[in-house]
Amino acid sequence: MKVRRRLGLFMASSMLLSACTVGPNYQPDRMKVPAQFKEAAEEHPATPEEIAHTTQEMTEWWASFNDPMLTSLVKQAIEGNFDLQIAGQRILAERAIRDRSASQWYPQMDANMGGGDVRYSLNIDNWPIRPGNPQNRPEASMLTYGAMATWEMDVFGRIRRDVEAHERAVEASIEGRRALLMTLLSELASDYMLLRVTQLQIHIATDNIRVAKDAVDLTNKLYLEGVGNTLQIAQAQAELDSQIAAREPLKTRVSQITHAIAVLLGKMPGELEDQLKVVRPLPTVPAFPATMPSIVMANRPDIRMAERKYALATAQIGVAVANLYPHFVIPLTFNPNASAMYQLFQVNAMSWQFLMMASLPLMHGGKMTAEVRAAQASAEAARLEYRQTVLTGFKEVEDAMAAWHDDIEYAEQLHKAAEDSATASERARKLYSAGLVGFLEVLTTERTTLNAQNQEALAKLERLRDAVNLYTALGAGWKGVPLTNTTLPVSLETQNVLARAFKQ
């Protein structure tokens, strides 16, 4: 009864004190940001329909390019990319570490049993008579069994802060996976756009090879008619050889891009080559988002991860501060000993210990206060890192918007230049066939046309990448993609029968 009263009193006192959690509580860093992006240039408030369309567009932005192949590749990448699966396993590991930290709230108990023979030294003066061995013989048989338990009372919240810190680490790892997912989709889309534009460049190169062959045939014909000369034939042949050679690196690039895309999907290089090398039209450049409030920046996983890391660092201050306060532990030991099996359960064999222990740090050379200062500095660094991440995010969005708007006119001018160059090249060939201009003018116009067409193709690539970069900068694409649990096929219940009965 006395033990029960003491235990009850101690438990009641601990429960009252457990409300005391030392260290600072996390407060989000309120950073002043503009309501709208400067480069958004919204001329009228967005309608509810436009807002709903933009929201859907941000969720699955790759569908805005109207390319079924791209949509299929994105789905396969989400399911098969190994880096994404690794990030998922890290989340599971962080959750397990959090659960391990939370286990400190519960009593820690272990059972033991054993037996055997022992021999004591007789060469020590005044050695007491050993219990159960009145003849004071040096040998004895001993059997024992029992249990040991400890329970730390979280009076000042050290465990609570530790669990809180690990919970924030879990949340940060979730945002890290989302950031990786965004990077994966951005890289996949950029590679896919480059693949289609490179195929377009191969098509342009093939057309120019055909034109160069026509030029060779024309110079040979004029030479036979007595109008041309061997210099013109050599120039035409050299141009043809140059055009054929220029096409080969483009073929190599196509192969390399298909290999990169296959790896992003978790497949062997070359596995998708037959599908990806089929020439398809360029994806459609989506329309600029109808509404663009700065609140969409809250979707960026890197900003969310930086904020969670700040919360984690704040909780770690509480852990360091709690170490300055007393620790309360209840140790319990039950360990009967006897020399014979029938004696093990007798009252005289009982041996147990029940204590209420408290420890107070007194002198450690400033180690614990230094740990508090280090935790404070780390938390402040995390807060500043969060602010820097927000600034960087706004910069990336503004840059992407500026590129989107500027590249529209750039692409239009290059398209006009390509058309004018093609017209000039056609006229130069006609004039050359009539003997009105030299072959040098034909070569010059053809090279100008090829350069203009390639520049236009690259401008189309930039327009497509502008859209990808904007969606990525806005933090779009990770919503609606759940964590894939790919744990190893090992069941704890099949490994240890005790796991069925006890929470180990």
Structural descriptors:
504 residues; alpha+beta; Outer membrane efflux proteins (OEP); 11 helices; elongated
What do these coordinates show?
With about 500 residues, this protein is an alpha+beta fold. The protein has a single domain, classed as Outer membrane efflux proteins (OEP), CATH 1.20.1600. It is built from eleven helices and six strands. The chain has helices at about 1-15, 50-60, 70-80, 80-100, 160-225, 230-265, 275, 300-320, 365-435, 440-475, 490-495; strands at about 110-120, 140-155, 325-335, 335-340, 350-355, 355-360. Strands 1, 2, 3, 4, 5 and 6 form a six-stranded antiparallel sheet that branches. Helix 4 (about 80-100) runs antiparallel to helix 5 (about 160-225), helix 5 (about 160-225) packs antiparallel against helix 8 and helix 8 (about 300-320) packs antiparallel against helix 9 (about 365-435). The two termini are about 30 Å apart. Mean pLDDT is about 80; it is low at about 485-490.
Write the layout of secondary structure elements.
Layout: H1 2-17, H2 48-59, H3 68-80, H4 82-102, E1 108-119, E2 139-153, H5 158-224, H6 230-264, H7 273-276, H8 301-322, E3 327-334, E4 337-338, E5 352-354, E6 357-359, H9 367-433, H10 439-473, H11 492-495
Antiparallel strand pairs: 1-2, 2-3, 2-4, 3-5, 3-6
Helix pairs in contact: 3-5, 4-5, 5-6, 5-8, 5-10, 8-9, 9-10
